[in-house]
């Protein structure tokens, strides 16, 4: 039986980052991934001669090259990577679009502030109060993390519409709770999107994953693809090792799982002694439209548009329908400020994400599934073009993924993109040497996931034996 210092479940962003960090300290590390490809939700695929990203719209927490502060700078130092390893191109500019009003923002926080002062002049001082509260948020205070964001916003901002417009992009990019949001998650996402900003590598998520895997392997790390975990064997208060789907057994001093809290605990053969965890409910569909011209040539110059078709933001699982098209995210990977020497992307694309119900998609027959994908594409795009130029006559190719696709590649119950609503900020489980990283630890997004892997590796796996 092979024995490792740390065994990591899942080759997503957090798992790969944790593996790199530990390999720097000469740990014997193995990452086990159920699928034949890496990345989890933030991955990529090739279809009909075209490359498609999955998950990644934009990297949040952007800071320019040379910056010494912020999560991106921390990540680069901890993994000993260069800024050019990510080669991030900043967004052109994005917006939150509600009926009759559009709140624009970019990577300059002062621009957002000026837009709010223009659209909501009575809220100038209140918005500054909100900024002060976010600046005072203590990342280490677990009690502050779970406070109600809606309550805090209601006590700070007096215009209900501005509250909903601020919540919309932050919930879309990192909230596992329905209707409300943990104050800690809100503060993290506010900083990531509005105070730091968004960017994208010219080559998309492939570049990030390629460089993470390359560095992990150069440091001697072992990556096992097509090696799903069938069971975590428990001996007393510790995890002794794992059994793979093919029956192979691996032993480890510490196990770090990015599979999600519900999914990880279910693997343990002493599940009855674990503290119960509730699975997330929020899943998505996403349409991809390939155009015969650049989005800017047809009048779409936004990087991302977060839209909602009424003054009240809708953030719930749509139990009575396959897709809820009332709200969504529209993104074009073409609308970033790429370096002149990189040229233009090989394809012109617009991606649109909408809320969806996993159970209803899962219950469809194969024939119904394909039919509902066609209907769903039309419904999602039809809803989105109320807020951006109608691009449907320029479409030359399409694709769409659903909650069942997300379930297949992340293994999350309900295809829950942001995992369980209750996060485990310390990464601990009921076992002294089994820890969580990634979505259910509490950090989201590309940079957040990588930081989660680094911080949990530092906190738990660099201690002899864990615990």
From TrEMBL:
Give the UniProt keywords, A-Z: Oxidoreductase
- EC number in record: 1.14.99.44
> Could you tell me which residue ranges the Amine oxidase domain spans?
13-457
Quote one Gene Ontology molecular function term. Answer: oxidoreductase activity
Q: Which Gene3D superfamilies match?
A: FAD/NAD(P)-binding domain
Where along the sequence do coiled-coil regions lie?
none
Q: How would you classify this enzyme at the top EC level?
A: oxidoreductase
Query: Is the Oxidoreductase keyword given for this protein?
Result: yes
On whether Protein biosynthesis is a keyword of this UniProt record, the answer is: no
Q: Which Pfam families match?
A: Amino_oxidase
Name the InterPro entries on file.
Amino_oxidase, FAD/NAD-bd_sf
> What is the similarity comment for this entry?
Belongs to the carotenoid/retinoid oxidoreductase family.
Protein name, as recorded:
Diapolycopene oxygenase
């Amino acid at each position: 039986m092979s024995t490792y210092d740390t065994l990591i479940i899942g080759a997503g962003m957090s798992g790969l980052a944790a593996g790199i960090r530990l390999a720097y300290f000469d740990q014997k590390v193995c990452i086990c991934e159920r699928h034949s490809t890496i990345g989890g939700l933030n991955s990529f695929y090739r279809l009909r001669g075209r490359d498609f990203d999955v998950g990644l719209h934009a990297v949040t927490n952007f800071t320019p090259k040379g910056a010494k502060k912020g999560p991106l700078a921390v990540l680069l130092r901890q993994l000993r990577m260069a800024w050019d390893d990510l080669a991030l191109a900043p967004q052109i500019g994005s917006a939150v679009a509600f009926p009759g009003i559009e709140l624009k923002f970019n990577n300059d926080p002062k621009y957002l502030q000026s837009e709010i002062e223009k659209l909501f002049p009575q809220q100038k001082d209140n918005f500054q109060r909100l900024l002060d509260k976010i600046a005072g948020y203590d990342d280490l205070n677990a009690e502050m993390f779970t406070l109600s964001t809606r309550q805090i916003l209601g006590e700070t901002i007096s215009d209900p519409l501005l509250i909903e417009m601020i919540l919309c992009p932050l919930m879309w990019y990192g909230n596992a709770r329905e209707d409300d949001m943990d104050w800690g998650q809100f503060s993290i996402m506010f900083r990531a999107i509005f105070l730091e900003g968004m960017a994208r590598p010219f080559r998309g998520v492939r570049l990030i994953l390629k460089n993470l895997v390359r560095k992990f392997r150069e440091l001697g790390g072992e990556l096992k693809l097509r090696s799903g975990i069938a069971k975590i064997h428990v001996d007393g208060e510790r995890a002794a090792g794992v059994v793979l789907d093919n029956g192979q057994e691996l032993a480890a001093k510490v196990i770090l799982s990015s599979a999600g809290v519900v999914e990880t605990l279910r693997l343990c053969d002493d599940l009855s002694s674990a503290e119960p965890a509730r699975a997330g409910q929020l899943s998505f569909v996403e349409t991809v439209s390939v155009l015969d011209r650049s989005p800017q040539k047809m009048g779409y110059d936004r990087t991302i548009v977060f839209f909602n078709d009424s003054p009240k933001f809708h953030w719930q699982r749509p139990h009575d329908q396959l897709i809820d098209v009332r709200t969504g995210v529209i993104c074009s990977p073409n609308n970033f400020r790429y370096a002149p020497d990189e040229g233009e992307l090989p394809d012109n694309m617009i991606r649109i994400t909408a809320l969806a119900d996993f159970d209803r998609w899962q219950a469809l027959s194969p024939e119904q599934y394909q039919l509902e994908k066609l209907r769903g594409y039309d419904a999602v795009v039809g809803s989105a073009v109320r807020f951006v130029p109608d691009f449907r006559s320029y479409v030359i190719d399409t694709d769409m993924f659903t909650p069942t696709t997300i379930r297949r590649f992340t293994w999350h119950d309900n295809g829950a993109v942001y995992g369980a609503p209750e996060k485990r900020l310390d990464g601990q489980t009921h076992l002294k040497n089994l820890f969580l990283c990634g979505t259910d630890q509490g950090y989201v997004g590309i940079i957040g996931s990588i930081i989660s892997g680094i911080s949990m590796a530092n906190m738990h796996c660099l201690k002899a034996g864990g615990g």
